[in-house]
Amino acid sequence: MRYLEIAGKRPLCGELTIQGSKNAALPVLTACLLGDGPCVIENCPQIQDVEDTLAILGMLGCKTSRAGHTVSVDASEAEHFAIFGAEAQRIRSSVLFLGALLGRMGKAALPYPGGCAIGSRPIDLHLKALEELGVRFSDENAPEGCGAGIYASVFHLKGACIRLPQPSVGATENTILAAVLAEGETVIENAALEPETEELCRFLSLRGADIRRECGGRIRISGKRTLKPVRYRLTADRIVAGSYLLAGAACGGEIHFCNLPAGQLLALLEILSRMGVAVGEDGTMRAQGNLLAAGNVVTAPYPGFPTDLQSPLMAALCFAQGESRICETMFENRFRTAAELRKMGAEILTEGSCARIQGTKALHGADVRAPDLRGGAALVAAALAAAGRTRIQGYNYIARGYEDICRDFQSLGADIRLADCRDEKVW
Ligand code: UD1
């Protein structure tokens, strides 16, 4: 029921600290299930996807608590293996409990995962990789009363050599979560290189797992019998940082990022430099408000340009001089943001997986709806740079990944507020 109201066309100036990474927090929290004793996770963002993950851990019998950005998970008394419930259906990353539950309990029952409707999002690669570790999938394992879902069991997880046909982030993480407690050695070829996958490996290594990243996308894991509890601090969220950089580019201004994960954003920084936006080594972004077009941009697995920043980039390019082209290679429904941007006066033509964005001098405020999480952040960026008032419905999508987008942009001088439309006419 909540919506954002933004009065745009103000430069963004000030200092920002970026929240902890969502896509690292979710697998790291899931990996807390793989051993007894309390794991303490610091810098854990206060976002809906994290709260849903903690609720699932609670459902399994883990003790969880939160004090500000520090979360504690103790899986010593975890005893359940079924995670049917609204939370598991809501988030895509609930599928990671498959690998973790199989590692911990030898069985798992979960609904098909939810998440943003950005494409068909199959999980065939997850299932095939786990099958190679000895997992069987069958409805015969369904506990009474559970509906359609994934039912898996394994007598004994055994290491194997697995080649992923494509470097899926989720399939890589699921395989790692199952393999760390499997007997013998597992090799994952063509594994995802995303920093969040690296972060899961770092966390598990600290817990005592034997995981080595070899050349290219090969990960070698020697299974261990137990893992120990640890304290771990999550790094800054590169996608939140990237979307704020793009909002700053669209609005113009000067933003100092206290903890910019610049090394994880090289593809974006290269495009920003083409657009005439400078980001210094000290984490300060300076944009004059006269953006240049970006030429051709193609989304790709890390270290390529991230699909999660495609919509925020599209929003910024609406304000650039000249034509830019974006090719989306990962998720087929990620151009739905274009239709909302057009309501604000954007000139965007989409055809299949390609979009042509003709920069215009100015966009104007409008009533729009966030189509998904990153599309929502893109509309916020466009609204901040557009003339007039914009109202953005679908705040719940944005809250899945941004701790407090109003607080962050208000601290940079933006006119943005969260409102409740319960008492207003639906628009
Ligand atoms: C993760 C991220 C998401 C990001 C995406 C790509 C999390 C919680 N989410 O999602 O924010 O946009 O990586 O960087 O970390 N695929 C298959 N079969 C499978 C699995 C994937 O065909 O079994 C395809 C997908 O349809 C997609 C591509 O592989 O085209 C990449 O997907 P994947 O890397 O698995 O993304 P997610 O892990 O879902």
Query: CA-to-CA gap between the ends?
Result: 12 Å
Uncertain runs: none
* Total beta-strand segments: 23
* Major β-sheet strand ordering: 21-22-1-23
Number of helices: 14
Percent helix range: 25-40%
Secondary structure category: alpha+beta
Percent of residues in beta strands: 15-25%
Rg estimate, integer Å = 22 Å
Main sheet attributes: strand count, strand direction, barrel closure = 4 strands, mixed
Globally, the shape reads globular
Ligand catalogue: uridine-diphosphate-N-acetylglucosamine
Q: Give average pLDDT, whole number.
A: 94
Give the oligomer, counting copies of the same chain as homo and different chains as hetero.
single chain
Describe the structure in your own words.
By secondary structure, the chain is α+β, with helices and mostly antiparallel strands. The protein is built from 14 helices and 23 strands. The longest helix has 14 residues. The chain is globular, with a radius of gyration of 22 Å. The N and C termini lie close together (12 Å). The chain binds uridine-diphosphate-N-acetylglucosamine.
